[in-house]
Design a protein that fits this description.
Length: 363
Amino acid sequence: MYGALAVYYFAPPGVNALSYKARIYGHYWLERAGSQEVRLNYESTMHYDDYKVGDGRGNLANRQGIRLGEPGVKVLGVIEPLEVGRQQKGERESMARQRERLPLIRASKTGYSMLRPKQGTAIRILQLAQEKGLRTHDEVLSLLADTYRLYEQLEAMLVTVGRRMGTGAPLETLRALLAAEEACPMGQAVWVHMQQRWGVSLEEIDTLFQEAARLAGAGEKPVSYLTSLLSKQVHYQQGPKKRQQHYQQIDFRCLSLTQLKAMRIPEATNERIRRAVDAIMQHNRAAQHALDRWFIRPKEVKALVGGRGELISAYLREHQQEIERHHREFQLTEKYNDKPFSITEQVHLPEYPTEGQAVMIDH
């Protein structure tokens, strides 16, 4: 199946399909005749044509190389020498035939040739001269020669398109191209593409560009303005990731309370909560009277170091066993917090966890 499709899409018309398949399969049995490999490859060769490409109507598609000439499509490297050789041979044969057909023209003393067209041809030449406003036969013949060379160039350009479209003569190919353009004009084709790929219409895109032009600076094109917005969005999305990478390198236990409060990230808040819980425990252990102790709960932690209630509750749940052991050790309940003053009057947190360990952070 691979070989059949490869021939249909990429084999040059002048290359034998069997030879093309042998080369793309790597079965070089022609060059290695007489070896064991030849016999194995020969058995494979019998199955080269098990698959054929059809035209969708029950007929075989006998054309090949229909995608040659498309952008980015090249003749297979191992096949290219054969194709080049075939083309060069064709050019040599064409030149030889032209030399045989061209009559021997002897030098003229006057500089004019002795071309003698038949009367019907002469009438056509005179009609063309009258239509084009030409004055001499030489001007008409020069126009005809130049026009023919131009036609040859156009014909060469249309050959590849004709193969792909399955058309014959250049005029037939042109008609097919014009019919395709009429059936789906370029603007409509672009609209269909935008609709299918992005789900937007050209009217919506035009409205977007009008708004971008209104908001853009003087002399700035809408595309440049939209590109700058996208660039800013990319940097904005990458910002948290970069900040996270930066914060991962920081030891929050060494920062001051002021530095921790200035950092709006969960890691800094958790460190403040940890210090508050630790300060309450230290106060309870040092208290001389049971009524001076405090039950650890979110309200008192928030009063000491601030922070969102959900983060404080989550931290206390995470360290619940340690906190409950502390409560059991001193037989603490929430009633111990029913005091006529705030916890901030008894429990105080130092600015730094240990003297001289603060790390300055550049925000």
